[in-house]
Structure formats: structure tokens, C-alpha cells
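User: Working on a comparison across species. This one is Tetratricopeptide repeat protein from Flavobacterium sediminilitoris. Can you predict its structure so I can line it up against the others?
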Amino acid sequence: MKKSLVFILFLLNSLSIPVFACGFYPYGEDIRFCFSKPNNFALYSFSEFDYSSDLFYPNSELFRTSEENPNNVFWHNYCKGKVNYDAIEECVYSIPLEQFNNKSANKMLQYFYLTNDLEALEYLKFAKQCEVFNAIYNDPWERNESVSIPERGKMIQLAEKQAQKVKNTELQKRYAFLAIRLAYYNGQTKDIVRLFDSHFSDAKQKDLVYYWSLYFRAITESNKALQSYYAAQVFVNAPDKRFAVFYTFDKTIAIKNILSYAKTNEEKANIYALAAIRKHDQALEYIEKVSELDASNVTLPFLLLREVNKLEDWVFTPYFSLYDPSVNSLNNNEKYSNEFSLNAIQSRIIKDRQYAKKVLEFASKVKLKKISNPTDWNVLKVQLLFITEDFETCLKEISDLEKTSLDKESQIYNQLQLTKALCLVSKEKQGSAKISNEIHDIIVKNKSNSQFIFAIGRLLEYKGNKIDAALLFSTLQGNVTWKSSKNKTRSYVDYFYDYFQYINVMYSVDEVKSLIADIEENSKSKDAFSNWKYSFIKNEIPRLYDLVGTQYIRKNNLEKALVYFNKVDNKQWDNYYGLWQRMDNNGNYFDENPFYTLKYTPDFIKKKENFQLNKKTVTAKLIEYIEKAEKTNNKDYYYFLVANCYYNMTIHGNAWMMRRFGVSAYDVEPYPEDEAEFRNGFLAKKYYQLAFKNAKDNKFKALCLRMIGRCESFEIMNESPNIDYREKNAYNDSIFKLNKTYKKLKDEYPNYYEDLIYGCTAFEDYFKAKK
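Assistant: Here's the predicted structure for Tetratricopeptide repeat protein from Flavobacterium sediminilitoris:
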């Protein structure tokens, strides 16, 4: 348990995992970009150590097939290939001891009985008997970490005797291994050394059983450098012991001290290999050493994969999503700074692409005859070409690989197709980028790969094709998050998670209109690619009309806003405004009529007309009231109603949805163009001032000043961040001292001041005073 805790602490220290006091923020594997999926490669036995921002964890199914398990391979060869792997798997790992008899249907047991191999049968029975003892039993009185069990001691002695007795040398080693393992669980450290030295120290052929035994020798070794040397040899040669031995390699020790125990170049290469896997930053120096010392080292393809996955994280995570890499070496100032610096991100990407070129140079020099799976190696080189932006060479290499015997239904072939599509889009000219017919099928086939689809969209956006980018983003349905390139600060919600949220902030009104035109013109195409591309967004037309109308509201172009709101059907108002609507027999409504009711203020204006409330009707009524204010004699009344509506269209009002599709304290930057209006209510202030200017009664004038002052207080709160939060209250003296309008109200209408500032029901009396 102590060693497990050390392992966990090591991982927490080595990985960059953000921790927040409250709230959720995307991080780790949720944001990491990875196109070279480890499962696509023939490297599954190393899967416990795939590059990841998560902690390493043991894989209970380390071998995807029985044939991949080296222990099964041993028994298959032992049985001269006459027993299939499934029968071996069943016999060794599943059949209980009491079923070991000549009546068993298991082919492996039948083989041993037919060949009269009693030694093998007895060994397997003994191994089954040992299973119950392969654990440390804790002392309930906590006097010792483990207790010596007499029965286990007897089994150790019996295993030693059998190792001397049996004629088969392979079974001799296996009995010795069982004795070593039992000695470990019995706390007999000295016996582990003795048994290992007597049975394995002079081994000429170091097979799987040798490295199983060396594992226990390693974990009980007190010399950390020697222990690390042992660990590296076990890690490379015993797949099922890799996770268990990983943390015994001490990366704080100078590697030269560990190397001093190595007797061959192969052993040195193994040390560099494990040292490379222990690094979460650049490991090329170690990987080159592995290749130089042992060109056929089994870890080399995996080490290259890990380095490619690192580079994908370091380059693509920030390039496509603008997040920092999921695993990084940023200092604390960079990690926790509230400042968002696109330049800093781009500078790091440039440096990481330069490192990718070095990795590519190394990978290109390696002789493929020495590599166990040259196809995997070549595919990783292709990905490095893409990372380094050598698109022409990348596409040529892909073309060459496509002409080989590579299975076109395999995952590795599909990965090549993903890279091909990304390369082709990357090659498109700025300002005229499109999705070529050549990659339509690739995109449709991989439509569920959200990172790939988003990356294609992002590349198109960078090239100036924002329409196709939006169409692709609309298919993601919340499976990817990304940041704005125009962010100025970092916050808990400085990221986007769907296409509508993104275009609402980042697309101009003309760009949204162009998007609508494209959908209306092309969404009825019958080809598979178009059917998919428009599948979701073609039903979003009313919502997009709503967006255009809202964008015009932000520009205070009410006439054009109304044109687009008139295009919206009632279903849109019903479906997307449920959070601030109530239902009754007459239909759907905003919470309150924005012309007659102010938020947190008792009703004080008699409603002369009622109408169904939505963006369309409110906009139409606002246009009507502005015209009446300008053309009738009742100017102060209508200007006041208009001002109320603009007031309610701010974050402080009951009709904020006229300008926004959601409200958060940390909205994604850049904010919409009317952010200052939304926070401060300048238009409301303007029309309250016009109402004041045209008012004839002093009490109504005083009410207008009260409302002008309320708008001014918003400006003070937003423009004076040094005021303590507890003082950001319109009734607080500190605000009043800065509020010129409240001062004017007090100076010019002293008899009304207390009533309007502190009274709860005064507004109604003062409004009625209007003549």
C-alpha cells in the first residue's frame, strides 16, 4: 500500500492536472487532441503506458488474444503446437484444481494424460495450490506489515525440492519461480536473493520465467540504482509485470549510475527505454540512445508513438482548441494567470513543431528492417510530417502506403485517411478553402470522431471558410469544447461547447445571413455528405433568424431586427424561451411586460394594452412607441415606456433575452458588440432623459431623474472595480457620492428625494402625476 501511495504521488507530481476550488472546467483527456490512437497500432502490450493526462492504471486485459500472452505461447510450444490457445488459457487460468483429472474435456489436460506427461500435470496442480498463498495477509494488530505463514513456508520447501527433482529444465525454472514468489509473500527477502542466485544468476537464456523471478528480486532490492536496472530489464521483457515494476525505476537517480550495472548494449537500451517512458516531456535523447544501442528493441515503436502523442497534445490541443496542452511544463504563473495570450500559445506551438522536425529526422534514419512492425513506424512518420506542416511529402507518403497491401478496412488505414483529409484541407488557399470531393467519404465515415470533424472545421475557419466551419461545428452536438481566439482573460467559462453559442459571439450578422442562405440553398442536396452536413442545422433556420434579429437589436437597428423576427415561427418562441416564460391558456409570455414592469420594482404603471410577448412583438411595440414619442404630444409618457423597455433589455431587466441567449457572470470573450449597453443601459438613460426633458410635472421629472440615476449607478459599478463588492448597491452612500444624477435629484427636488430613493410604493404616485 505504501508503494502504491508513492506511485500515485509521483504521477500527481509529474502530470499537469488543474484543480479548481469550485465549478467545472474542461481539462485532461476531455481537451487533449489525439489522432494517432494507440489502439490503431500493434502495441497493445504497452497500453498501460499510453501517453495520457490521466494517471496510469493497470489493464486487466493486457493481451487482446490468447496468442499474444507469452505464457500461453510457452505452453503452446511445450505441447508441440498440438493444443489450441483457448484450451491453454482455460487450463492455466480458469480450471480449478479439483477438476484436474483424466475426465476433463480440456484439450491441454487431455494432451498431458495422453502423452503421460505427469511432470507437467504435477507442476500445474502445484501452481494451482500456490494461488491461495500469493497475497500478503495483514496483521489485524498492526504489529507487522505481513505475517509469515507456516503453510506457505512448507510450500516454499516443496517448490525447491521439485525444482531439483523434475527432469524438464523449463519446469525446474518454474518451480524455482514459484518458490521465489512464495518467499516474497512470506517476507523471506534473503531467500528471494538466494533462490534467484542459485537458479537464475547464470542463466544463458533469459526467458519469461527469468524476468518474472527478476521482478521479485527487483522490488526487494535496497540499492535504488541496482533496483532501477533490474526494473528496466523486467519492464521490457515481461509484459504482464510492466505496470507492477514501473514505479521501482527511480527517475531521480542519475541515469549513468543505473547504466553502470548493465552488461550489454541491450540492457543499456532497456534502461533508456524505461527512462523515456517515465518522461512526460521531450524524450528524444533517450529514444535515440535506445535505437543506437539496440535497433530492434521492442519498445522503439511504442516510444515513437508516445512522442507523437505528446506532440499532438502540445501542438494540436492549443492549435485547434486554444487550450493549453493537457500535459505541459508551464510554470505556475503561466498555468494560473488570468491573462489569455494567443501570442504565447502560438510561440509554444512553433517551438513544439521544431521539436517534431527533430523527431521526424530520427524516425526517418531508423532502418525499418530492425523494426518489428514497419507499417506502424511509417504511419507515425506520416503523422510527424503533418505536425511539421510538410503537407506535400505527407500526402506522397500516404499515397505510397495506400498502394501497399495494407488492409483498407483496418484502423491504421483509416488513420491515414484522417491525416490525408486534414492535409488536403490544410493545403487549401487562404480565402477560397473548401471541402473537396476527395474527402467527403472520409468525413462521413468518421462523422462520430468529434475531434477530427472539429479539426476540419477549424482549419476551414482559419482559411476563411466560416460557413462550412459552422456547418461542421453544428454536427458536434457538444462533444468538443474550444476557446475564443479573441479571449482577453481566463475564466471558468471562457470556452464554447456548441456551434450556436460560437456563431452568436464570433460571427457577424452578414456571416450568419450567409450561413442561412447556404442552408436554404444547399440543404436539400441528396448526396450522403450533404445529407449529413446539413442534417442538424437545416432544422435550425428559425433559430438562426432569431439570431440575426437579435444581432440587429444589438446594433439598435430595430427595423431590420423586426424583418428577421417576422420570419420566425411561433414554435421557435415556444421552444427556446422556456426558462423565462410562463404558460397559461393565452400562450407564451416573457416573465413581465418590459414596457410597464421593472425588475425588483413594484408595479407602478397601469397597463393600457396587453399583447402576446416575444421578441417580435416587443420589437414592433418598441418601434411604435418611439414613433409615438416623436410624433404625439404625449412624448414624456412614451419616452418613459421606451426607456423602460431598453432598461429591461439590459442584464438588470426582465427582457435581457432580447439581446442574449443566456446570461453568465463569465461569458465567453469577446462579448457581443453591445456589451457596454447590456451592462450599463445607455439607451435607457437616453430615453429617460428625453422623458425628463419633455415632462411638465415636477414629480414626474423627479421620477425620471430617479431612473436616470439608477442607470448611472450601473455605470459606476461597472467602471469602478475598486469599490468593495458589498458597497456595489444603489442605496449605498459610496455609490451616491459618485452619482451626479442622484445629487441633482436631491438638490433640485429635495422634497421628493427620500420618497423616491427609499420608498417602496412611491413610483406609482409619481408616475400618476404626469400630465
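For your comparison, note: The two ends are 84 Å apart (CA to CA).

User: Helpful, thanks.
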